Amino acid sequence: MLVSSAPGLTARPERSDGGARDWAEIQERMLVPLYEAVYERLEVGPRTRLLGIGCGAGLALLLAAARGAAVTGVDRDGRRLALARERLLPAPQWGARRADYGQARLVLGGPEGVAVPGGAAFTVVTAFDPALPGEWLVPALRAAGGLAQRGAAVVLAGWGPPERCATARVLRVAERLAGLAEPVRVSVRDGLEDTARMAGLRLDGSGRVACPFGYPDMDSAVRGLVSTGLFDAAVEATDRPQVDKELAEALHPYRRPDGTVRMENVFRYVLARA
């Protein structure tokens, strides 16, 4: 089921069809180790009712649904959400049975537009996208807390230490071109814990997961990284060809002799309780 959010929610500026598809087809899979590590730790399965904040194109939801979880996703980007619908609510002519993920629901906006399915509160809430802005994420987490059962797990994810994230050096291109005084959202330090506290959540642990970014060629690497949204301000300040050119130059040290591009990264997640 795909529905619109409650009045008053601000939608995220939609990416072009190409940008949304680049995220779904190139970049989103880089975070699969993070999704799987969290699901293993929380024993996500048939008894799980999961709410994904900033669910994007739905890959994390798809992996949870494959474990038997009932999943609900919210996102402010309508184009990404349309791709999530293709994955989770496929039409019969696409060769998948609708019943396979019949418990999936997708909402354009935030948790404020979500009704608790069947009166059963969520048992797990996730916010995996490290590009989610804090000014939107904190209210979204508060709203999600009202939909979750007491003690439900709430997971926030972000970049690990900059010295453990090769991509942090590449993202300096975005900072320079956009003229940003503050770094792009890579160095989080205690940011995840602070966000959880501001949302009224109780901290209950953390973890780190290796999430290498690997691409078959330079073009895919550029398109994948731009699709994250972390280069949006740089594109607005200059133009897309300039960003692509300088990003390719910054990626050159990570290009291997066979033409593939690989950057080693560590992502961090915080586990909290509603």
From TrEMBL:
GO terms for molecular function: methyltransferase activity. Keywords: Methyltransferase, Transferase. Residues 1-20 are annotated as: Disordered. It comes from Streptomyces silvisoli. This is SAM-dependent methyltransferase. It comes from the Bacteria. GO terms for biological process: methylation.
